[in-house]
Specification:
alpha+beta, five-stranded antiparallel beta sheet, 1 helix, 5 strands, globular
């Protein structure tokens, strides 16, 4: 997987947290939707910090592995 980064993640406005992160606003990652071909990912506790920009196919493969439980 080859990822790049965005120095200031707050420039994107479409960030969302997983519904699995709970309601306590704890440490979590957020992803930005609707950006063709890539998935930006950031630390929710640092919204003005950097974000990784991951190819969409790599992100989909990662999510599939997480859902399958094989990364446990």
């Amino acid at each position: 997987m080859s990822a790049s980064h965005i120095r200031t993640a707050s420039v994107l406005t479409t960030w969302r947290k997983s519904t699995y992160s709970g309601g306590d606003n704890g440490d979590c990652i957020e992803v930005a939707d609707h950006i063709p071909g890539v998935v930006p990912v950031r630390d929710s506790t640092a919204p003005h910090g950097p974000a990784l920009v991951i190819p969409a196919a790599s992100w989909a493969a990662f999510i599939a592995e997480v859902k399958s439980g094989s990364l446990s």
